[in-house]
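Hey, I'm writing a tutorial for new members on how sequence and structure tokens pair up, and I'd like a real worked example in the thread rather than a made-up one. If someone can provide the structure for the chain below, I'll link this post from the tutorial.
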Amino acid sequence: MEFYDINWIEFFNQKILGNSVKLWCYSALTFLSVYYGIMITVHIIWKKLKESRFRESKSFVKIMSTLADSTTRFLGLSFGIYFATLFLKIPPDKAAFIKPLPIFLFLIQIGYWGNSLIQYKLENIVEKKKNIEERHQIKTLIGPLRFILLVVLWSILTLVALDNFGVNVTALVTGLGIGGVAVALAVQNTLSDLFAALSIAFDKPFIVGDFIITDDYMGNVEKIGLKTTRIRSLSGEEVIIPNHDLLNSRIRNYKRMQERRVVFSFGVIYQTSLAQLKTISGTVKGIIESIEQTRFDRANFFKFGDSSYDFEVVYYVLDSDYNLYMNIQEEINFGMIAAFEEAGIEFAYPTRTLYIHQPEESQGNQRKDKPQETSKETPHDAEFQSILLPSQAE
């Protein structure tokens, strides 16, 4: 049969799945028109918004651009299927699936829009904070808060979709409540880390960027996740600690230290005169007070050491920066060396004095015991010892 010999009227009136070919053609054309019409329109709108000179200043334009960016094919499919099915007679056994399908696809698209809007709003909150510390605090909250909002959003959309497919949502929710107990017991470690993340987010014992010490680990907090917190240690490696373990340990947060209390000690030799000893505290005080960002507290001669007069000094560095503290301590040490050299005062170092005792010889030759200083050494711990030499046989 040639093409021109086909009876087109009869052809278009043929039934396929309960609908004529003509209705199927109308339905297909409608679907293609609606689908491509929506997708082309969204692309044009997105392009115009992207080129808009108000994109960086107008909140409404930013929101619309965000929605256009997150628009997927589910939008075109949902409207295309909906309008295409208006031309068709759908059997009752198929209607329970086909009729809710456009709504289901549209709910998925709503989920994408909601996800983008949540992300946009949270990022917008961070951008509005000009203070760096405030930004770190907000970033600590963003992860857990975004997770909770997304769970709520997709849970609602899922329940609405199931309800449209004829599922008894009330019975389902009741069943989930009972089954949730078993699931919670199975994943209790994960849930404990999740709730620990929420505790960190709202209580803020530390935030991203803080330098903390916990147990044997120390470093800067890089990320606070839903299950773990990541710390960049001083030696460079990344330390990953479960949130639950982290909250159960003792945490020392050095970022929130307003000032640093420094205690150090030194000793001077026992040959130092009383007049010189009385000037040492004042000398150290003057050195510390001459350095910026310091506050002198005290300097005292506090004990007699094994080989020195020992002094203890306390001062404050008016900043939490560790490098600044080390530079100040170095400057104090250099100043003390210069001042003590000028005053003729010597720093003590560990010494040991040895006295040798020679006993009387066994053959009657009497000799006077003459203790004599023979040597000075510098061991790790200073002490005085008397060494008795044994008799020497002739």
